[in-house]
Fold:
Amino acid sequence: MTDAWPDGWTRQEGNRVARSRQPAPAGADYPYDDPYGRDTHPADPYAGDQLRGMDDYGGGVPPGRRVRKRRWPKILAALVVIMLVVVVGGYFWLDSRLNRESVLTDYAGRPADTPGTNWLIVGSDSREGLSKQQKKDFATGSAAGRRTDSMMLLHYGDGGTTLVSLPRDSYLPIPGKGSNKLNAAFAFGGPKLLVRTVEQATDIRIDHYAEIGFGGFVGVVDAIGGVDICVKSRMKDPKAGIDLQPGCQSLSGGEALGFVRTRASARADLDRVERQRQFFGALMKKATGPSVFLNPFRSIPLAMNATSNFIVDDNDHLIDLTRMMWAMRGVSGGDGLTTSVPLGPSGSSRAAGSYLTWHPTQSKRLFSALKEDQPVPKEVITK
Structure:
């Protein structure tokens, strides 16, 4: 119900007095000034009170009701901070779990730094981490210490990614020890002498070093739920503890270990180095794939196993291993190259027994391309 007031003024029952938005006529005598008539009337000491508290629809806001401020931006910010703390803290904790040795040291005549990044990746026969039953099941024996079981040179840069197998029976000069098989360098002086032997033989400076033993190998594979491998023909080798049927299949940690260890094939060690490259490419592809990388039930056990079982140089960190894994993934995905050192004639000696030699010109062309971070010539690529 409304009562008419002069000149368009109205009053509504139950609401505060509200004025129409009609300008006040000149000469009108009102007790208070209208916002639209300030030029002709004295100032209203309560100007604006009539409209205070009105909502967009003309209704008043009930007294005592407070407008709640949105809290979700603060909650979101807090969650982001917590996640950053967890991620950063987790990274440094995992990085501290890596086993480090002083491997990459300077010496007189060491090759100068070259473009791209070079890794020496070593698989040792260390039984550390294997139970007695696992040693029996995997036919690893119980020998103490560690010896090199596989060696690969990984290079990546502007010239592409290349994974090169270095057969352990390669006959090379070992600094201070004469000429012998490549794996003898590790037996004589550990990873430090092995790196120096490889650098002197290839004229390539090694930037990073990674080594993993039998126990760590099995743990990493099992942590990601096995590795998919296509077996060309039946592989039965009691010395490696395997009996695999031909076809594509998922290998457990123990089966994968036998797959890369066995020499029971026509070309023995040459077939083995080819399988090692095949396996490591498949391992990195699986480890960096969404089924593992985005699955905490896979990625966390993988990180735990990898960091506790890898041996790296003093200056290597978790970020370096991650980059190495992505580079290996590129190799397995067809964006890189896998090959072995071009070989020359075989031979034998009283100290070394039967051995393999590197082709004098083709091997030099291979390593020269890697040293200069250039694509590897097709004519020097071998399996």
The longest helix spans residues 72-96. The chain has ten helices and 17 strands.
